[in-house]
Amino acid sequence: MxxxxxxxxxxxGVGKTTVCVGVGRALTAxxxxxxxxxxxxxxxxxxxxxxxxxxxxxxxxxxxxxxxPQDALNETDGLFVLAGPRSYADITKEQVRDLxxxxxxxxxxxxxxxxxxxxxxxxxxxxxxxxxxxxTADPVSVRSAAIAAEKMQTLGVGYVRLLLNRAxxxxxxxxxxxxxxxxxxxxxxxLLGIIPEDRHIxxxxxGGTLLEKHQISTTPFMNVAKRVTGENVPLFFL
Length: 238
What we know:
This protein is of the alpha/beta class. An eight-stranded mixed sheet has the order 3-4-2-5-1-6-7-8, with helices on both faces. Helix 1 crosses helix 10, helix 4 crosses helix 5 and helix 6 runs parallel beside helix 8.
C-alpha cells in the first residue's frame, strides 16, 4: 500500500525541498519505489532534484488530460519527480486525492508543500495521512512550524513528526539556536530526525546535484528514511 507523506514547514528558507529530495533519494536507495510531487507554486523541486531540463508536463497537465500520468514523471537514479503547475486555480482536494491514487504503484509519495498554510499546503495535506514538518532551531521557524503542524492535523494529517534541519551543535551550545528539547516542545511533535548544517549539501542544492546515489549511505537522510519505513534507528546528533 502506498504511503503518502506531506513535507511542510511554517516559514520558507528552512530547507524543506532539500529534505524532501534527500529523504526521497534515501528511500530509493533502500529499495523503495519513491515519487516526489511538487505542490509549491515556486516550483523548485525539479531544480533541486536535477531534472528541470527534462520536465515537459506537470501534474496539472495530468488533471487536464493533456498527458498520461506516466508521461509527467521524470526519473533520476531511480527516484521519480512530478513537477507542479504554475497555478492551483480551480483545483480541488478531490482532484488531488484522485491524482495521487493514479500513482499507487509507488511505495512512497512525498509531497513538497509550499511554506505557510495556503492553497498548495491544503491541497497537499488533503491526500496525505502522514506528515513531516521541517524547521530550523530558531524561535521564528519553530513557532511557524508549530502553526503548520497544528493546521496539518486539522486538515486530516493524523501523524505529524518534526525534522530539525541545518542544526549546528556549536550554535546550540552558545544559545544562538534553541536546543533540541526546546524545539520539540515548541512544535509539540515527535522528533523524526536531525540534519546537521552542511555547506556542501547547500551548495549541491543550489546546483541541482543534491545527494548523488553513492553518497546516500553516509548521510543523516538515510537514518531519517529508515525511521520513515518503521525501522528503529537511535536518534543522535554528532
